[in-house]
Write a structure and sequence with these properties.
heterodimer; A: 618 residues; Ubiquitin-like (UB roll); 3 domains; eight-stranded mixed beta sheet; 20 helices; 24 strands; B: 380 residues; mainly beta; OB fold (Dihydrolipoamide Acetyltransferase, E2P); Glucose Oxidase, domain 1; SH3 type barrels; 16-stranded mixed beta sheet; 29 strands; 12% helix; disordered N terminus
Chain lengths: 618, 380
């Protein structure tokens, strides 16, 4: 199957492709995006969405895909569907497409378990590899994880993963502990989640000297694949071979057993990609295109995916139970009502908030009709983003197990190797995607959610996906990078603006930032920002301005404490956002003061309808 | 250009054909044939799941190297052992001292590892059976997996539930759909019953229901705090049905105090005293699984259910002018009405989102505009 798909992929001639249809089968909804070559460039034309139908009573993913495509047909008058699938190749006029591609995270996506010998070393590397391949990691097992063998066996049985990635031992290192894990997996005899005839795929990416016993133990019962060691030596993490084979097995073993996927696989000549893998590919495109450090986030209904492209490192994490629809109550559970209420400029009873969120969980496709309800969802989103990033930082950290010599600078800065290597002062882009961010009625709302959730420091570009099409473009880029990049630049990536925020906390109402802006018309603008406030300078998309930032003594915008910085910034839908609310961000403790501040901040960015300020502006 | 439209709906039917697929999680033996009549507790399929594994660290216990393990074993792979039976022995000091390793459980030696020095003992297989859940006729068997049972029945879906499958007799406790179900109302006569309440159930009432031996509770709403207090933990993701509780709870409307819909309430009242099969299992994601109440009605003839398929087709058409609906989100949560108009173009709502909306005439005469995503079709 893979070979024929790869062949088909290589036979695609990009220059012949004029009409493209891409779908994503998400956990809750299937989304169709329709692209066309208009003149010399590829552009986004229309989208359609419908509930995903991978589970009972439908059990055929193509039904939901058809419904989503039917919406595109209705909106464009372009005929796309035939009884046997997608009309391809295009028949000219308004019928058919030249290329159909798709991604999928339906049915919970690719659910994996990973195992290694030492929790902080090989097991952590295996976790990064599985996450990078777009999987949800259900559990990380290690010899030193504190659980007894029978507990681990019980856990494997209970979780019923789609695939297991086993690492452990450097080449020439321990064999015994690696084999011990294999014995536990074999003893657990995990039953498949999809289809009774499913042979559970296991990827072994550990000590090469353990390959023979591993084959003897696991080779007969499982679909075993052996790849290069993920940690051949302690100083090196080599996740690519494992990641590639996970993608291959996802198609061959997992997808082919999911209801309706055999049909869907026949519709497309391109391998189906896990949604997060495709989404991550586009975030990497931003990093590569602009040679920048990028943090990306996909805030979905079920999960929150965070990606960081920092220096030469790419890390993806998924917070499997932090989402905005059917796992919204898990955000509540993890953060508590107080942390959600702090983002609302009005009083709400805890009980009311909790019941609202529980009602959203059980009716996940409903949308806010009132501004208050919208603000409740945005408050939860800030917490989901914050928690997702906290989780991400735990994995975006230096390799363990390596002896390091601490430099004088490390000692002076009290830098610990346990901490993340991501320094927010050096993050150039912060970009978001996912239904809630893409569908926010005003872009300033997504800007504030991203800023409050991630708290960027220094000078950071803020961007977002226009109508949620990054996964679609990610899979398209595997066969037609030109089309994917053109659409990405013109129709997908919305430049919201730039956030300028000094690191550090000032005193109340103290002037903490002066900024001198040379506007595109050469006029000079000087702004002073008091601590605890936020301001906006309009600068349109496509416009550039030279700014000089003078932070307060103790504030850092990337050049050291109290030092000024000169930089050319690009505009966006919102413009230049001057955020002097402190890093870490400080919310007033007094309830009335806090609500007043929120209203001030929303007003400063023109984030919500006027009605809100009239009602709660005091 | 983009568009979104959803028309979720909960089923509430007095007469329909209910089909239940009863499937083993792994291959096994099917015990019924197509055409058989079964009772709710008839076992339709059976299998055995592998027993638990116990790991014995032989090399550690006997003080030998891992690679020597096989040498000192008294039992071979595949041999059965009894609890406390010696399975390995090492002699030292010219055979004067013997050290033994014993089986911690009865079972079969599954693996002796000369790499890890461990021995794996598997306990006996555990039988796993599935019953018919509803009385009816076997209309299909699934080779080595299970069977599909069919029966005429009344069928009601809830919005959220906890607890798995249960069977019992329906008993109306509330007199109106808007009253709160209290612990005082529950007496010993509730034993074995599926109790129907009104707008709210509290944690105390749930605990009392367990005490009197009720099988289930069907009620309009619950406060999340009461649910957490009853379960002992907070639910974060709506995937339920596996809770370790003796009572199945089905919520028909949502969280908070919510009067049970008149139609659901009167339907349940019509079947007071009848036998029912219920399941609280809820899974809110693609292909949503909602909790259900099935009241078998074997007395119904095919003609009486006659127009079932036709009505079903009507519902499958989705929203049309005249379709009865219920609003499922604030500010009109719970309001009933009928669709009066379905504008094709997207409309800007108060949040400034451009969405597909519908115009509805509510039962109280108000005419409102709501996002289509915020209504559910009332299937009658």
């Amino acid at each position: 199957m893979t070979i024929s798909k790869e062949q088909a992929k290589s036979e695609i001639r990009p220059e012949k492709i004029k009409i493209i249809l891409a779908t994503d089968c998400g956990s809750t909804t299937s989304k169709a995006r329709f692209f066309k070559k208009l003149g010399d460039e590829y552009r986004f034309v229309a989208s359609g969405e419908a509930p995903t139908t991978v589970e009972s009573p439908f059990e055929d993913v193509t039904l939901g895909v058809r419904n989503a495509i039917r919406e595109v047909e209705e909106l464009t008058g372009h005929k796309l569907l035939a009884p046997q699938g997608i009309i391809t190749p295009s028949k000219g006029g308004n019928e058919g497409v030249d290329l159909y591609v798709t991604t999928s995270s339906a049915g919970g996506g690719l659910q994996m378990m990973v195992a290694g010998v030492v929790k902080n070393m090989t097991a952590e590397s295996a976790e990064r590899a599985a996450l990078g391949a777009g999987a949800i990691v259900m559990d990380v097992m290690a010899v030193d994880d504190g659980r007894r063998p029978h507990e681990k066996i019980g856990r494997i049985r209970y979780l019923r993963p789609d695939m297991i990635l086993m690492a452990g031992g450097t080449d020439g290192g321990t064999v015994r502990h690696v084999v011990e894990t294999a014995e536990l997996i074999d003893a657990a005899k995990p039953k498949p989640r999809l289809g009774v005839d499913f042979e559970l795929p296991i990827v072994f990416a550990g000590n090469k000297e353990a390959r023979t016993p591993i084959k003897a133990i696991l080779g007969k019962t499982f679909a075993l694949k052996i790849v290069d060691n993920i940690r051949p030596i302690l100083e090196l993490e080599n996740t690519d071979p494992a990641r590639n084979v996970i993608h291959e097995l996802f198609m061959e073993h997992v997808m082919s057993h999911a209801p309706g996927y055999n049909k869907l696989m026949k519709w497309t000549p391109i391998p189906i990609m896990p949604t997060p893998a495709a989404e991550g590919k586009m975030f990497r495109t931003i990093a590569e295109t602009y040679n920048a450090n990028v943090i990306g986030v996909g805030l979905g209904g079920a999960t929150t995916n965070v990606y960081s492209m920092y220096g030469d490192k790419f890390v993806r994490t998924v917070s499997a139970n932090l989402g905005m629809s059917y796992s919204i109550c898990n955000v509540l559970k993890e953060t508590g009502t107080g942390n959600i209420i702090r983002w609302m400029p009005f009083d709400i009873k805890e009980e009311d908030l909790r019941n609202r969120l529980y009602n959203k969980m059980i009716r996940p496709t409903t949308i806010p009709q009132s501004v208050e309800d919208l603000i409740v969802e945005h408050a939860v989103a800030r917490e989901a983003l914050r928690l997702g990033f906290e989780h991400h930082k735990l994995l975006a950290r230096p390799l363990r197990g390596i002896q390091r010599r601490r430099t004088i600078a490390d000692i002076f800065e009290q830098r610990a190797f346990e901490e993340t290597y991501i320094d927010m002062l050096h993050v150039d882009w912060l970009a978001g995607t996912g239904g809630l961010l893409s569908h926010a009625p005003r872009r300033a709302q997504s800007a504030l959610m991203l800023i409050d959730g991630f708290q960027p420091e220094g000078v950071t570009k803020i961007a977002q996906d226009s109508v949620f099409m990054m996964p679609h473009l990610g899979v398209l880029s595997t066969v037609h990078p030109k089309a994917a990049l053109e659409i990405f630049e013109k129709d997908c990536l919305v430049r919201i603006g730039v956030c300028i925020a000094p690191r550090g906390v000032g005193k109340d109402e103290e002037d903490v930032m002066k900024i001198v802006v040379c506007m595109p018309d050469n006029s000079i603008l000087e702004e002073h920002v008091d601590f605890g406030s936020i301001k906006k300078i309009p600068l349109k998309e496509g416009e550039k301005a030279e700014v000089e930032i003078f932070p307060f003594r103790g504030g850092d915008v990337g050049r050291g404490s109290g030092k000024s910085r000169k930089v050319v910034v690009e505009g966006g839908v919102v413009g230049i956002i001057l955020d002097a609310r402190g890093r870490p961000l400080v919310l007033p403790k007094d309830n009335d003061e806090r609500k007043q501040k929120l209203i001030e901040w929303f007003k400063a960015l023109d984030a919500y309808p006027e009605r809100l300020y009239e009602m709660y502006g005091g | 250009m983009s568009s979104q439209a959803y028309t979720p709906g909960l089923k509430r039917k007095a007469a329909t054909i209910v089909r239940q697929m009863r499937r083993l999680p792994i291959r096994g033996e099917v015990l019924v044939k197509k055409g058989d009549n079964v009772q709710a507790d008839t076992i339709v399929a059976r299998t055995f799941i592998p027993g638990d594994i116990n790991v014995v660290n032989i090399s550690g216990l006997l003080g030998i190297d891992a690679w020597e393990t096989s040498k000192y074993m008294l039992k071979k792979e595949g041999e059965e052992v009894k609890e406390k039976e010696s399975i390995a022995m090492v002699k030292s000091f010219f055979g004067l001292f013997k050290r033994y390793a014993f089986a911690p459980v009865s079972g079969t030696i599954e693996r002796i590892s000369d790499i890890t020095g461990q021995v794996l003992i598997r306990e006996s297989q555990v039988p796993l059976e599935i019953d018919a859940y509803i009385p009816g006729k076997v209309v299909e068997t699934l080779s080595n997996e299970g069977a599909t049972i069919e029966t005429p029945a009344a069928f009601i879906q809830g919005i959220f539930g906890i607890g798995g499958e249960s069977k019992g007799t329906l008993m109306m406790v509330a007199e109106t759909p808007n009253e709160v179900l209290t612990a005082k109302q529950l007496k010993s006569k509730c034993n074995g019953k599926i109790l129907v309440g009104g707008a709210l159930v509290t944690s105390d009432t749930l605990k009392k229901a367990v005490k009197v031996g009720a099988k289930g509770i069907v009620v309009g709403g619950i406060d999340d705090r009461d649910l957490t207090s009853f379960l002992g933990y907070q639910i974060g993701v709506a995937i339920t049905g596996q809770e370790d509780i003796s009572l199945t709870l089905i919520i028909t409307e949502g969280f908070g105090e919510m009067g049970m819909s008149e139609k659901t309430f009167s339907l349940l009242k019509d079947f007071d005293g009848k036998h029912a099969s219920i399941n609280g299992a809820t899974q809110i994601r693609a292909g949503v699984m909602r909790p259900e109440i099935i009241i078998p009605r074997p007395e119904l003839t095919t003609e009486e259910i006659g127009d079932f398929e036709e009505k079903r087709k009507f519902v499958e058409q989705g929203l049309l002018p005249g379709t009865p609906i219920r609003i499922i989100r604030k500010p009109y949560f719970g309001a009933l009405g009928v669709v009066s108009n379905l504008p094709v173009a997207l409309e800007t709502i108060e949040t400034e989102s451009d969405v597909r909306v519908l115009e509805a005439e509510l039962a109280d005469g108000r005419r409102i505009i709501v996002p289509r995503a915020n209504v559910e079709i009332i299937e009658e």
